[in-house]
Every structure is written in C-alpha cells, then in structure tokens.
UniProtKB/TrEMBL annotation:
Residues in the signal sequence: 1-25
Membership in a protein family: Belongs to the bacterial solute-binding protein 1 family.
Keywords per UniProt: Signal, Transport
Entry protein name: Alpha-glucoside transport system substrate-binding protein
The keyword GTP-binding appears for this protein: no
Length: 454
C-alpha cells in the first residue's frame, strides 16, 4: 500500500470544489485584476477554451488539495476553461465504479501504476495526445514514462512524486562524533560499525526502525527490501520480481533480505532507544525515528514524508536538528537507485479542453505553478523543468534533486505493483515474522511465494 497516499487522504470528508473562471488577456490581464501577473504567452497553443469545463477526480483532499487548485488558475485564466475539482477519500474504491458505470471524470489522478492498468483495461481510458507525450519525453525520465504506459500505448503523465530512499540523521551528532555522510553502501556499513563501537552502552545503537502501523504493520519493512534489492540486483531484476517473472523467493530476493538483515536483525545495530530487533514490528513507524533527537539512535531509513513526523519545533534542514541523506548505492558511479511513489493524470475523454489540460499538467509551467502555490512543502516532482528555487521546503529540494539526477534509476514502490493480497498482505506479514519470530530469509520469501495468486 502506498503510504504517501494514505498520509494524503487521512483528512476527514470528501471535497468537491469548483474553480471559478477568471478572464485573462494575452498580455497578462488588466491592471488590478487578480490574474494581471500571469504571463499567458505559454498558453497560446491551447487555444480559446472559453465556456468549457474539465472535471478532475482524485484522492487528494483539502488542505493538501489547495495548492493543486491554486496551480490550475493560470490555465483557467489564460484559456477560459473551468476546472471542476473533486477530492474524495474513497477515490480508490469509487473510481472503478464510476468508470464502469459510465460516470468517469474527464481526468483522474491515479496513485498507483497497477490501478492505472486496471482502469485502462476497462476500455474507457483514452491515450494521451501527442502534445502530452512530447512534454513527458522532454521533462521526465523513461522510467516515469513507462509507468504511464500500458501495452505500448502512453496514457498518463506523471504528476507529484515521493522519495523513499532516505536516511534521517542529526547533523550535530555527526559533527560531534566526526562522522561523515556515506556515499556508498560499504561506507554506510563501515559507519554503522563505527557508531556501534563508539557507543557500546547497551542503549545507543546506530539504527532505529519501526514497522508498526495498526492493520498495516509491516509496510515499512517492505520498503527496506525494495530499496536494498534495487541496489543489489538492479532495475531489471526488480521489475521481474514485482511482475512475478521470477519467484518471490528468487536467490536475488533472498540476498536482499540477508543484506537488510545484516542491519535490522543485528542487536548491535538496532533498535536504538527502543530495544532489540524484536521491537521493530511493535514500534509505531511515526515514532521510530524520534530516538535521533535524544542521541540514542543515529540513523533512520524512512521516506521524505517523515519530515512531517518530527515533533513541533524540530528544525528540519542541513543545519537543523534533523536532516536526511540519500541511501547509498553499491556503486553510485554507475547508477543512483531511488524507490518512491507518485500519481498520474489519466484521461477518459479526448475533448480539446481535456487534452489541453492534460498537456498542461505534463509541462514545466504546471510544475512551477504548483511549487509556487505549495508554501508549506510537498511539491515534489520528477519534472526536470521544475525550478527548485521555487521550493520552500528543504526536503522537497533534496527529493527533486534525487529524482531528476541523470544517474537516477527510479522504481515505484514494489508492494504497490504486486497483487494486493501479496503487496498489502503476505509481504507485510512476512516482515513481521522475519523480525519478531526470527524466521529466515528463505522461510519468509517462500512463505510469500506460496501466496502469489495463480
């Protein structure tokens, strides 16, 4: 299950908002008009869309929806179209019902490639126009385009993104102990050993971790395995694993479990400030990094959204109380593996105004409008045309740098790509059994393989 999605929709109630159309002249509008600062020259190719409407359906509700709504105003003002935005907590359950019932939105923001494929399979989705595809070719990597492509046809442009391949730490604690941010996996393990040797008091450990999340307990562990497998086996093997072209208990996957276990199942390395490795699954993921603040833990692997989990008053930044670095690759000179998530704009109509808006969403113009509107942070995108100077959040800047690096090999969260019975079921359970019951890597991977749907 996509945790970035869960955190986004954890706001009560559905939101349906209609954005009002504001007239805008080609030279930026009349003095005193709210739209007067908008340069409409970039919108001339969309034509005059006055009197048209485009409906958007998404899981993103207020307050997270507000920057999206604001970012659409330039398109509305310069083209004359109106964007009708509907955010719904029940999006994942309702989108298929609406599509199959003949009530599809013009555009849906789809949070998972597997869901996108399911919606395309209904026969109701339409391929993206050439203009949208051209923007994606210019501003996004082939990895991102591939997730919006089904059976060789390009359907959906990437929108927002999240990064999971981060390690949180205290810059001050590193400075006080003479530690440096590692740039390779070997350096990461050397640092882990050094911290363990320097702080052998039975309480302080190099790493802290927590898989606990109620009925969703275990998902944090799947992120660990995905990050490590992408580093140890590469993108092709990762793809074969998530699509079941190789079994879940393939030797490469077992090796990834063992490599991860060298950290998470070693009581000399975990669980700083919390206990031994068996406490990992009983520790709430939102609390797992907190021992960094009291000095009983030095390293915590967690996604970019964890920036919101630190207590009020915690300064997040390169010179702050906590900061994050890229989880190192085995050979960073060759590739920079990044695991993350994101959403995609899938259309169910080929009306001119829908195609124009879908093209706008794939542009650098929209990425920058969204960044300007997202003053509280959360405007991460893999769009290479995004002006990072517009980002107000240091974690956003770090994430965008990682996503747009030419060496980056991006892969979507693996459990989101698997059948839900596995990705949001037996894979989670296996991570709990692996840590709590000390089952071996071979045992738990074979356990999951036996549950893969025929």
């Amino acid at each position: 299950m996509s945790r970035n999605l869960v955190r986004t929709i954890a706001v009560a109630g559905a939101t349906a908002l209609t954005l009002s159309m504001v007239a805008c002249s080609s030279d930026g509008g009349d003095a005193g008009d709210a739209s007067s600062s908008i340069d409409c020259s970039a919108f001339s190719s969309y034509g005059d869309l006055s009197g048209t409407e485009v409906s958007v359906y998404t899981a993103i509700v207020s307050p997270e929806a507000d920057p999206y709504i604001e970012s659409f105003k330039a398109f509305e003002s310069c083209t004359g179209a109106t964007i009708v935005y509907e955010g719904d907590k029940a999006f994942s359950e309702q989108i298929s019902v609406r599509v199959q019932g003949g009530n599809a939105p013009d555009i849906a923001f789809v949070p998972q490639p597997g869901m996108l494929q399911t919606l395309v399979a209904t026969g109701e989705a339409v391929a993206a126009p050439a203009e949208t595809e051209s923007n994606v070719d210019e501003y996004f990597s082939e990895d991102w385009k591939a997730y919006g492509t089904v059976d060789g046809t390009f359907y959906a442009a990437p929108l927002g993104a999240s990064v999971k391949s981060l390690v949180w730490y205290s810059p001050q604690a590193f400075a006080d102990n003479g530690y440096e941010v590692p740039t390779t996996w070997d350096e990461l393990m050397t640092l882990t050993e050094q911290i363990a040797a320097d702080h052998n008091d039975g309480l302080t450990k190099p790493w802290c971790a927590g898989f606990g999340d109620g009925a969703s307990t275990g998902w944090v562990g799947t992120d660990w395995i995905e990050d490590v497998l992408l580093r140890t086996a590469g993108g092709e093997t990762y793809d074969q694993w998530t699509s079941h072209e190789i079994p879940f208990n393939d030797p490469a996957v077992v090796d990834a479990f063992d490599t991860t276990g060298a950290i998470l199942k070693n009581d000399d390395y975990v669980n700083g400030g919390l206990g031994d490795h068996k406490t990992i699954s009983s520790t709430a993921f939102v609390d797992a990094g907190l021992p960094i603040l009291d000095g009983t833990c030095y390293l915590h692997r967690q996604a970019s959204f964890y920036a919101n989990s630190w207590p009020e008053g915690t300064t997040v930044g390169p010179d702050g109380d906590v900061w994050a670095f890229y989880l190192p690759a085995t050979d960073p000179d060759q590739a920079k593996p990044v695991v993350g998530g994101g959403d995609f704009a899938l259309a169910f109509s080929d009306r001119p105004e829908v195609q124009a808006f879908q093209t706008y969403l794939a542009s650098a113009d929209w990425a920058n409008e969204r960044a300007k509107a997202t003053t509280a942070g959360g405007a991460v995108s893999a769009n290479k045309g995004l002006d990072t100077d517009l980002l107000t959040n240091e974690v956003d800047k770090l994430s965008v740098e990682m996503l747009t690096d030419d060496k980056t090999v991006f892969r979507f969260d693996g459990s989101d790509l698997m059948p839900s019975a596995v990705g949001a079921g037996t894979f989670w359970t296996a991570m709990v059994d692996w840590t709590t019951e000390d089952k071996s890597s071979e045992e738990v991977t074979t356990q999951v393989e036996s549950t893969w749907p025929a």
